[in-house]
Design a protein that fits this description.
- The chain has 9 helices and 10 strands.
- By secondary structure, the chain is α/β, with parallel strands linked by helices.
- The chain has one domain: TIM Barrel (Alpha-Beta Barrel), CATH 3.20.20.70.
- Strands 3-4-5-6-7-8-9-10 form an 8-stranded parallel beta barrel, surrounded by 7 helices. Strands 1-2 form a two-stranded antiparallel sheet.
- Strand 3, helix 1 and strand 4 form a beta-alpha-beta unit.
- The structure holds phosphoenolpyruvate (PEP) and manganese (II) ion (MN).
Amino acid sequence: MGPNRTKPYRLAAREARPHRTVIDVKGVQVGGPGLVVIAGPCSVESEAQLFETARAVRAAGAHILRGGAFKPRTSPYDFRGLGKAGLELLAEAGRLTGMPIVTEVLSERHVDLVARYSDILQVGCRNMDNYALLEAVAETGKPVLLKRGMAAKIREWLLAAEYILARGNDRVILCERGIRTFDDEYYRNLLDINAIITARLESHLPIIADPSHGTGRTGLVTRAALAAVAAGADGLMLEVHPNPAAALSDGFQSLTPAEFGNLMAELRALCQAIGRPLGPELGTRAGGVA
Ligand code: PEP
Ligand code: MN
């Protein structure tokens, strides 16, 4: 896609709007001046695991709580999430800590159910080109976090966003979560920094980076997160677990609460250096603290 060719994603294109899109999620501005941090476990496993994680990430400065209740798993025999019970726990953890929540909607069948609980609907990388699902999530009117497919071109990703916009929902948050690559010996995916830069150039939509899936290894997450922010990401999505070794999914890429705290400290320093504030600090928003 050369710079002079007409863009096929008419509504998602940078030129479609005079300003970058800012999405308000219960008082948290995504795509505004402040960097937004979304954190929580890969999967909601239990009340104790979720609440401990939620309190820890909130205390360290996270703005939005994540957690999977319907999990896409490569093997049907792996843990596939708590379903509705997981949504109820997430909503409760969000209330207790004053954080909006985001969770994945795996199937068109679950759109209404997930939309009853979640403040943001996540479309996972395996569903980026499930056009019926994209239209169904669009119709809820809720913000949609659209992950890039693991082998999707930027154009395909922006056209997937276009499906949601064209259905009358302009609250789309793009999420770069790493692409498949040839060297999977040292990491699982390759966080595509070029994609973050390009998404900002091509589109007015906010873009967040997921260095947990984007690297697939705990030891790489913090530096990849900083790189994504330096490249212009509007926020981060991070997997955190109180005991990663015992996690039912993605423990190998999850940070402990202490590691997450260290990442937040490094992020604050980077934010100062690049002149971009971190989003609202703990206790400054309505909703209170656990
Ligand atoms: C997740 O966020 O836990 C997830 C399954 O993400 P992805 O769709 O990027 O693999
Ligand atoms: Mn995960």
